Amino acid sequence: MLNMLLQTTPEEAEVLTDGESVEKTLSIIELIFSGGTAGMLIIGILFVLLVVAIYIYFERLFAIKAASKIDSNFMNQIKDHVSNGKIDSAQMLCAQVNSPVSRLINKGITRIGKPLEDINTAIENAGRLEVYNLEKNVSILATISGAAPMIGFLGTVIGMILSIFEIANSGGQIDIKLLADGLYTAMTTTVAGLIVGIVGYIAYNHLVVRTDKVVYQMEANSLEFLDHLNEPI
């Protein structure tokens, strides 16, 4: 993905050879391998971070999507069972659904008979655990989105230092080709770092939005359950 995005902006130069123009194309693969050990190491680290970010994004996306699925008639069935005193049936229904919402409701059902404040506290504690499970590894995406550009800039600085070192040891004659190759290599790491950072940032914010929707769903159903318990018989 990184290679494909970088290749969408090729640099083309025309070099006069015996009066004829020859089209020269800039290859990202050539730049990576011409960057020396330091450049290839930086690109390798960024590629690993990109793979980790993509994996975490899709793994969490599928988990959050599964957690948000719940039967629209679930709460009505729970209220009917509770109203009729069928606590075991209500718990069995929660176990069958097996979602964050059903686990919160099940926690409240196990506290029926105790003060409403105790039931609310138990649901809140269970809710914190569910939110923690939903947000598992999502913070890694935030770290990648911030660290990847800095790693790319580190590669840029290293490339610039190496270019200046080569120029300083060229005997006072500046080789424009040598300077251009060094700058290309330095900028490659910057572009790679920014791409990985952007991917991580977008993935992180999308997962946060999806998680917030599930949290709202849990809060709404928990309040509905508590309101039902608070209704006069």
UniProtKB/TrEMBL annotation:
Q: Which domain of life is it from?
A: Bacteria
Query: Which membrane topology describes this protein?
Result: Multi-pass membrane protein
Coiled-coil annotation reads none
Which sequence ranges are marked TM in the entry?
Answer: 31-58, 138-162, 182-204
Record keywords = Cell membrane, Membrane, Protein transport, Transmembrane, Transmembrane helix, Transport
Identify the main location: membrane
Q: Does the keyword Transmembrane apply?
A: yes
Instruction: Give the subcellular location.
Output: Cell membrane; Membrane
Which positions fall inside the MotA/TolQ/ExbB proton channel domain? 98-219
UniProt family annotation: Belongs to the exbB/tolQ family.
| Identification of the protein by name | MotA/TolQ/ExbB proton channel family protein
- Give the species this sequence originates from: Gaetbulibacter jejuensis
